[in-house]
Amino acid sequence: MIRYINSLLGVAAVILFVIHGITMGLFLAGYLDYSPTRKYWGYALLVCVILHGILSMMLVIFADGKRKHLAYLKKNAGAHSQRILGIIAAVLIYRHMAAYGYVNEAGIYIFKEPTLTTFISEVLMAIVVGAHIVLSLPKAAITLGVITKQEEMKNQRNLAYTIFFLVESVSLYGLYKYFLG
């Protein structure tokens, strides 16, 4: 049951990531104005990510910790990569929360001065989160019962790659325009 709830949270986080990544990429590129609504989408995404991370750690510590994953290191390379990317993503998301600026008392978004370090960490975060989604989404679909056949697994992988390239291209374009454009 915990794995099912964790998969639901992961899928909800993917949906919110798509909304957040595309709208904020367009915002950074100058195509959308600031809206407080975008902030709430980001908070909803953060809550899903935090809960997903906590449940994932619980699953690893309490369930998977009893199995010998090192004995099957090659077979579990995807799962280990997924976990490592999740940990790296958590660190980069923490850094991301204060990367661009803040909202003042009047509700106006005040940008920080863009730096090369922030640009690099934001690009890295977008790629790491995207790679985590590509590895995780098909597994979540299996857990949620969406995938029952091998052909469906290929379709789910294609969906994960489509989401990755769509969100990454808009996000990276926005980052480029904001930091370098």
Task: List the main descriptive attributes of the protein structure presented here.
181 residues; mainly alpha; two-stranded antiparallel ribbon; 5 helices; 3% strand
What is the number of helices? 5
The neighbouring-strand order within the major sheet is: 1-2
Low-pLDDT stretches? none
**Rg over alpha carbons:** 18 Å
| Share of β-strand residues | under 5%
Protein described:
The protein is mainly alpha-helical. Helix content is 74%, strand content 3%. The protein is built from 5 helices and 2 strands; from the N terminus they run H-H-H-E-E-H-H. It has helices at residues 2-29, 36-63, 77-96, 116-143, 150-179; strands spanning 101-103, 109-111. Strands 1-2 form a two-stranded antiparallel ribbon. Helix 1 runs antiparallel to helix 4 (116-143).
In short:
The protein is mostly helical.
Q: Strands, helices and their partners?
A:
Blueprint: H1 2-29, H2 36-63, H3 77-96, E1 101-103, E2 109-111, H4 116-143, H5 150-179
